[in-house]
Amino acid sequence: MKILITGGNNAKALKLMKAFPSHFVLLADYGDVPGIVTENYAFSSLGQLNKDSIAHILLNFCITESIDCIIPLHHDELEPLAKSAVLFGEYGIQVLLPDADVIADYVAQEKQSFQNFAVFIHGDRIFSTEEGSIPANVSPKLNGVFGYNSTGDLKLFTI
User: Measured between alpha carbons, how far is residue 65 from residues 50, 61, 68, 72 in Å?
Assistant: First the structure.
């Protein structure tokens, strides 16, 4: 499986790579990105940021690069991608975000620093930096990467 993580120039994206040790991870970001390619991961540029066409830019990139799953970390990407998830799905690309109608419940109102994060796919926790502090399965519709602290309150892991 080929996974795209946006915000590739940020340390949070690098931390997230450990959740997918058996997959190829493409770390991409807007603007200049280092040209590094290894057996398990690579860096790539998404071009210049245009907030009006984020979903279009990312869909084109995913199709061109044969991406199977996209994990958006930029705050500005969340809503457009959640609303476009069905379109991405028609191309066989999974958008790892909650549904558009509930995404606002998982967006932090202000910048937060999280001690831990977990990855959920269809409600099943597939990775967590700290086992046991949050449930292994939640709502079957829940998708995404969520940061959490000691309270266990899940918020999207964004930059």
Answer: 20, 6, 9, 16
CATH for 130: 3.40.50.20
The residue written with tokens 């790539």 in the block is: 44
Please give the residue range of the domain that contains residue 18. 2-156
Each residue's pLDDT tens digit, 143-158: 999 998 777 788 999 9
pTM: 0.92
pLDDT tens digits for 20-55? 999 999 999 999 999 899 999 999 999 999 999 999
The total number of structural domains that make up the chain: 1
